[in-house]
Amino acid sequence: MEAGFGSRRRGQGAAAGAALEGVAGDGRDPRCHISHRLIRMVVENAHKQGKWVGICGELGADLELTEEFVRMGIDELSVAPSMILKIRKEVRDMDAYRFGENQ
């Protein structure tokens, strides 16, 4: 089984974020620092087990989060057809130097 995050799954993961409530937000907003930490932890642990992690729906199509998802190591962004070219351009325009690939 692979791991995934998406707009419909946000509520399913909110319980984990709610457990940390009061630390740095409630974890239910995907732009929240805790949500980023939780997603990063899932990615790291899934990759250790040889599993991929995908983000789908509105969350995957959020252009403000695309670079962060790439930094986290998200393997797949599954988005509506109308967003594919926008996401592709966002990824293509990322500077490899920011990710340490050309050091």
Write up this protein.
- By secondary structure, this protein is mainly alpha-helical.
- It is 45% helix and 11% strand.
- The protein is built from 5 helices and 3 strands.
- It has a 3-stranded parallel β-sheet with strand order 1-2-3.
- The longest helix has 16 residues, at 33-48.
- The protein is globular and about 30 Å long.
- The chain starts with a strand and ends in an 11-residue tail after the last helix.
- Residues 9-27 have low confidence and may be disordered.
Record the strand order, biggest sheet.
Answer: 1-2-3
* Computed structural class: mainly alpha
Number of strands: 3
- Helix-strand topology string: EHHEHHEH
User: What's the N-to-C terminus distance?
Assistant: 35 Å
Number of helices: 5
Report strand %: 5-15%
Envelope shape: globular
**Average of per-residue pLDDT values:** 76
Q: Unreliable segments (pLDDT under 50, ≥5 consecutive)?
A: 9-27
If you compute it from the alpha carbons, what radius of gyration comes out, rounded to the nearest whole angstrom? 14 Å
Helix % is: 40-55%
Biggest sheet, open or closed, and with what strands and sense? 3 strands, parallel
